[in-house]
Amino acid sequence: MGIRWKSWFWSGLLAGVVVSASGVLLAHNVLGPRYVAAYRSLMVDPLPVGLTIVQNLTVRFGFGFLGMFLYVAFRPRFGPGPRTAILAGLALAVGTYLPTLMLLAQFGVLTGPDLLVATPWSLAEAMAACLAGAWIYREPAAP
Questions:
Q1: Rounded CA gap, 113 and 116, in Å?
Q2: For the chain, which residues make up each domain, given as ranges?
């Protein structure tokens, strides 16, 4: 059975909303202005704030769609449901979030306590996004 693209799109969109909302909350409310300033300081030619927001949202919605692609790909092996969504979220976090966190740590953007907060937050964010998307992904019942 193939991917139901319409269902995948809507579930990926929901997952992207979860990832985006969580990322904004983490960056601006939990880590705060010091993190935002450190992030912007690494830009060679800082983009206008509006373009930076569009760029970050594009990447975060891409993570949402990728997470749901992983969930749909895992379904035949692990079956539908929350367990599979959590596995897809773990795969998403290991493949995309953790390398990004490691780079931010190497460049001095995330250090010490901020890194200790951002790592489990990101892992939970990826799993929550996949759980939310999996909640609305549907395939037709087998005949």
A1: 5
A2: 5-136
